[in-house]
Amino acid sequence: MPAAQTVPCQYRTGKTLGSGTYAVVKEAVHIKTGKYYACKVINKKLMEGREHMVRNEIAVLKKVSSGHRNIVTLHDYFETAHNLYLVFDLCTGGELFDRICAKGNYYEADAAELVRTIIKAVLYIHGCGIVHRDLKPENLLFRSPAEDADIMIADFGLSRVMDDEKFKQLTEICGTPGYMAPEIFRKSGHGKPVDIWAMGVITYFLLCGYTPFDRDTQQEEMEAIIAGDYKFEPKEYWANVSEVARDFVRTLLTVDPTKRPTAQQALEHPWLASSEPHFVADPTSPTGGPKDLLPNIKESFNARKTFRKAVLSMMAMNRLSHHALSPRSQFALNVDEYRKAAEDENVDEEHNLVYGHPSDGSHSRTPSSVGTPTSPLPPTSPAKDHLEPPTGALERTKLSDD
């Protein structure tokens, strides 16, 4: 590995945009170009023993960055004495569902267009030999507030490069429970089909405002997922959704991953491939136009919002208790302290940074040069089977554990 060298910082960090369990996201401006970015800041003490997770996220993002307009780009990464910085696109348009709820109306064709765009990006990710493993609405962001802004897939912290020469299937349990495929819970081996399952859950969510496997407990939710136990209910919500859309959801939520469609096959389904949109006509429309889905979606979403926050807050605490480093209790006590320390550090041109540099000794760095140097994180052993905390989602401009 090339020796680490110190160079002047090329960024100036500013306000905090959000935070998660293990990291904070700060606004950053490139000093020479004046361009703004989102900087994920991870305290090195929180990553001790987890260096493989950061290495993996960088490796994945190197393969997909700048390759597709609907995938967040990793532009740069560097270290200070205490923190690791990952420099991403600054997405200011908000999360997918927040954007939908802010609209005046929302039709089935709008949902189909969103799903089509996202699955095309998933097709690209899979073509790069990568499985995302944490697709969900919270990780789908808009590049800007503009009406025609690109929707972006973010959070590659749980992604893996599927190298066929090394292994065929992944076996660790990871992801966000409501969007995880049956084979993940079974630990029977999983791969790219888990992303298609997640897209089925997302599509269901985009059509009604809640997920198909909502249950009172995580155990009941897991059992429902394994059994593929869901319904298109309440009927008054789904009466406004076409049978073609429901068939699309059923197809993606095929329990057997070997029978689940690929991303390309999903794009060929009539709901996405037809030139004419599918919809249920609004009986009050003089032209027979489509039914507006937004009122029911908002009602359903708001009814579950408080419950969802409580559940995810509990999940975050469970993740911490399951994955804290030894001694566990001490690590748990230090998380807030270390995260706060990461937030308090501001860098600018007066700070020296640590990079690992190419063999020619060059250490010039500009945005999007991420493919050249390698981070001088200490080498680690490969990840073992365990539920990994989702530290990679933090390129988001609106971050929380809820």
End-to-end C-alpha gap: 39 Å
Strand order, largest beta sheet: 2-3-4-6-5
Structural class comes to alpha+beta
Largest sheet, in brief, is: 5 strands, antiparallel
Pfam family, one: Pkinase
InterPro entries: Kinase-like_dom_sf, Prot_kinase_dom, Protein_kinase_ATP_BS, Ser/Thr_kinase_AS
Domain Protein kinase: 11-272
Region (Disordered): 275-296, 352-402
How is this structure best summarized?
With 402 residues, the protein is α+β, with helices and mostly antiparallel strands. The chain has helices at residues 51-64, 96-101, 108-127, 182-186, 193-208, 218-227, 235-238, 243-252, 263-267, 270-273, 294-323, 328-344, and strands spanning 4-8, 11-19, 23-30, 36-43, 74-79, 83-88, 130-131, 140-142, 151-153, 160-161, 352-356.
Itemize the secondary structure elements and their pairings.
Blueprint: E1 4-8, E2 11-19, E3 23-30, E4 36-43, H1 51-64, E5 74-79, E6 83-88, H2 96-101, H3 108-127, E7 130-131, E8 140-142, E9 151-153, E10 160-161, H4 182-186, H5 193-208, H6 218-227, H7 235-238, H8 243-252, H9 263-267, H10 270-273, H11 294-323, H12 328-344, E11 352-356
